[in-house]
Amino acid sequence: MNNGLPKGQQLYEKVRNNFIGLNTQYKVATGKTSTRVYLDSSATTLMMKVAHDVMEDFYKHYANTHSLLHFGAKISTREYDWAHRRILSFVKADPEVYTCFFTGSGTTTGMNRLARILRDIRPDKDVAIVSIMEHHSNDLPHRKHMKKVDHIPLKSSNGKLGCVCLESLEKILQKNEGHVNYVAMTGVSNVTGIVNPINEAAEVAHRYGVLFIVDGAQLASHVPVKMSVPENPEQNIDALVFSGHKTYVPGSPGAVIARKDLLEQIEPEEVGGGMVEDVFVDRYEVKKVFPDREEAGTPNIPGAVGLAAAVDVLDRISMKLLWDKETQLINSALDQLMKIDGVVIYGETDTELCDRVASISFNITGLDHGLVAAVLNDYFNVAVRNECFCAHPYVKEMILDDLLDYVESVDMEDIEQVYHLKRGMVRASFALYSTEEDVATLISAVKDIASRKDYYQSQYEVDNSKNYVHKSFYFDHTETFSVEDAISALLS
């Protein structure tokens, strides 16, 4: 592998081409078969082959970790413990201060859990603060579990929304002084890919005695994370949650990294096997040791090992290198998209003013987002996502003027359908495995769609579910893959 490139660059080139699903082919509406261009990574990433292979090797030794009697249990316990330590190291969290535990299948479970914990240990502080750009997973848990939620506005430049405004955050903290429990903020928007200054925001929150937690679902696999900041402890992050399935290991659990002293103040929410020291007829004693006390029952051990393997690979490559590479790709895509007549890009596009990674959301004037996404898939084999990406307030704020114009021009009986068809965007999202060739395919496709609007509109109709469906092309997914057929083939 020694080809004159630095070691990180060598690993980057080796790993980026080894993701399961990169070479998957489908037949498109033109009758041709092509390799898909996967640009839906902000929803879920493809599986890193190294992590997959590590998990397969681990399965040979798999056993429950709640015993150290036999060989498999000893190996499983050791590697599961390593997974916790590796996650802490990945997010630069001091193991003396923080613990890591695994939960659910993404960020949602962990964020709900943190919201309930912080509510119960600080009952006199009943306000949570979030930004307007949050995914529902970092908005709705706080609405449900806290008495009041206040939203931080975003910086605005030339009418385009950017990152969280720290001055506005401070004003909200002042307004609610003495009542704010915590600030919960996304590290990276799942809609625009805009990066928030989380450590600086933590410093502002801590000045007012407020805790600071981070939704790291879109952050962890794209941008270096530093939870412990020894040179300025006020910038420390109190808790962070991220998703395994957005960090190159579909099927892995979510990870919660939190200060031990916060968790020690209350009995764990979930109880059961593995987290108790002893159980009597009339009482039970919870373990004091972390992370055991936070992981009741049998955890997703292989998934945790796979996730830890993936982040280990990312660190070996260098998160700074990955961030730089992705920034170059994003800038290239933005520059080319902005040159296409009729394309509207959402969020601040000047990366000198506002860092961006992962995602670009856009529309083509005169075409519904659902139609554009359907054409990209059916004709060009480009997998994107459309609608509001579980960030309804943020998306609606960015498209509000256009949406009002559309609604005002239609009859009342058609408003519901028009609202559904118009309310949203198209999102192309990138990852470690994304290439300039992927960008080139996207740009070529968008140019074609923008220049042949009438043709593509004529090829589709809207079904009863208000989805765009091609009039003559039908993709029979059951002929492409079926779990039952796969089982039968393996057993034959």
Outline:
The chain is of the alpha/beta class and 492 residues long.
Question: What does this protein structure show overall?
Answer:
The protein is an alpha/beta fold and 492 residues long. The protein folds into two domains: 7-35 and 318-474, Alpha-Beta Complex (Aspartate Aminotransferase, domain 1), CATH 3.90.1150.10; 52-316, Aspartate Aminotransferase, domain 2 (3-Layer(aba) Sandwich). The protein has helices at 7-16, 49-59, 71-90, 107-121, 140-145, 166-175, 198-207, 260-263, 301-317, 319-337, 369-380, 392-408, 415-422, 436-451, 453-458, 477-480, 483-491; strands at residues 19-20, 25-27, 33-35, 37-38, 47-48, 98-103, 127-131, 148-152, 154-157, 160-164, 180-186, 211-215, 239-242, 254-259, 276-279, 284-286, 343-345, 359-364, 382-383, 385-387, 425-429, 460-462, 468-470. Strands 6-14-13-12-11-7-8 form a seven-stranded mixed sheet, sandwiched between helices. Strands 17-18-21-20 form a four-stranded antiparallel sheet. A hairpin with a 2-residue loop joins strand 9 (154-157) and strand 10. It starts with 6 loop residues before the first helix and ends with a helix.
Write the SSE topology:
Blueprint: H1 7-16, E1 19-20, E2 25-27, E3 33-35, E4 37-38, E5 47-48, H2 49-59, H3 71-90, E6 98-103, H4 107-121, E7 127-131, H5 140-145, E8 148-152, E9 154-157, E10 160-164, H6 166-175, E11 180-186, H7 198-207, E12 211-215, E13 239-242, E14 254-259, H8 260-263, E15 276-279, E16 284-286, H9 301-317, H10 319-337, E17 343-345, E18 359-364, H11 369-380, E19 382-383, E20 385-387, H12 392-408, H13 415-422, E21 425-429, H14 436-451, H15 453-458, E22 460-462, E23 468-470, H16 477-480, H17 483-491
Parallel strand pairs: 4-19, 7-8, 7-11, 11-12, 12-13
Antiparallel strand pairs: 1-5, 2-3, 6-14, 9-10, 13-14, 15-16, 17-18, 18-21, 20-21, 22-23
Helix pairs in contact: 2-9, 3-9, 6-7, 10-14, 11-14
